[in-house]
Write a structure and sequence with these properties.
The protein has 306 residues and is an alpha+beta fold. It folds into three domains: 97 residues, no CATH class; 110 residues, Tetrahydropterin Synthase, Chain A, CATH 3.30.479.30; 59 residues. Helices cover 42% and strands 21% of the residues. It is built from seven helices and 13 strands. Strands 3, 4, 6 and 9 form a four-stranded antiparallel sheet that branches. Strands 10, 11, 12 and 13 form a four-stranded antiparallel sheet that branches. Strands 1-5-2 form a three-stranded antiparallel sheet. A hairpin with a 6-residue loop joins β7 and β8. α4 crosses α5 and α6 crosses α7. It is rod-shaped. The termini are far apart.
């Protein structure tokens, strides 16, 4: 037996609501007509009084259909549980007074007026194990907005809470895919590949939040550090690696300088050096160039062999 994938409640379609200003005039005319008909129909047995009462009730019912929308706001219209459309145009509108202003019951009661503006979600610092199993602290900021109002209202219980939970889950997933730093050659790391990691996080979030009708505008890491329990050890390791890297550069350049000195002396015929004298010269130059402190000169009044 095949399992059906979960269905989307509805595909958003735009509803064109009536302008509220003409309907406001109609509303006032209803009240005026009701007062006039009731006044005229005061005679015993007149049916006009009932008509006037009906007009008055209709006039009292109409204000329930007025609503306003600011730019980048939308309202989802629900009639007795059925989705009728979404109003996206800003301004003063009127629609059927029986269109619900909330969705759900009890604790899940949510307004059907949604903001389409971009929002920020900044996660707390999460402790996650990276690709190598080292505990790290990581946090990110996610810029998102509602794109499909029908999915945001009907496909998830609370789309704002859904974004927060799924964002934290995606951040944990991304952190476990990469090493903190010092990966293999050409390997992307959390520390060294900020742009690549941000792009991967954005794609992961978009897949997770598509069900809620949400578009991810941007996602960036805002905090990245080793967990406190291993931070001192990792700091010493980084310092040792930095010292080794610096020493490597110093030695490479020192060898180059020694080679240049020997070649220059040989080309200019300044002095003829045999292998033993060259070895002594190389040793002295490397000590001078690679030492941590200034070298102390020693004057040799004899020869290299005495």
């Amino acid at each position: 037996m095949s399992i059906r994938p979960p269905r989307s409640a509805a595909t958003e379609h735009v509803f064109s609501a009536v302008s509220g200003w003409p309907m406001l005039i109609v509303n006032l005319l209803l009240f005026a007509a009701a007062a006039y008909v009731i006044a005229v129909g005061t005679a015993p047995g007149s049916a006009l009084k009932l008509v006037g009462v009906a007009l008055a009730l209709l006039g009292l019912l109409m204000p329930g259909g007025y609503f306003t929308l600011q730019p980048n706001q939308a309202r989802v219209l629900i009639l007795f549980g059925a989705y009728k459309g979404t109003v996206r145009e800003s301004g003063f509108h009127w629609a059927n007074p029986f269109y619900s202003r909330t969705k759900g019951l009890g604790a899940s009661l949510l307004p059907t007026k949604l903001s389409l503006r971009a929002r920020n979600f900044s996660s707390d610092a999460l402790k996650v194990n990276d690709k190598r199993g080292n505990p790290v602290e990581i946090a990110a900021v996610v810029v998102w907005r509602v794109e499909n109002t029908a999915q945001a209202v009907f496909d998830v219980e609370d789309y704002a809470s859904y974004v927060e939970i799924q964002s934290e889950s995606a951040i944990r997933s991304i952190a476990s895919r990469y090493a903190y730093d010092q990966g293999e050659e050409h390997e992307i790391t959390l520390r060294g590949g900020a742009d690549e990691v941000a792009l991967a996080l954005k794609e992961e979030l978009q897949v997770r939040l598509a069900k809620a009708g949400v578009i991810v505008e941007d996602a960036r890491l805002t905090h990245l550090a080793y967990a406190p329990e291993i931070a001192p050890v990792m700091l010493r390791r980084q310092q040792a690696e930095a010292i080794i890297a610096a020493r490597k550069i110093i030695v490479q350049n020192a060898v180059t300088m020694v080679q240049m000195a020997l070649d220059d002396l040989d080309q200019r015929n300044v002095v003829k050096l045999d292998d033993e004298r060259k070895a002594a010269m190389v040793s002295n130059l490397l000590v001078v160039l690679c030492g941590n402190s200034d070298a102390s000169p020693v004057i040799n009044t004899g020869t290299l062999y005495t």
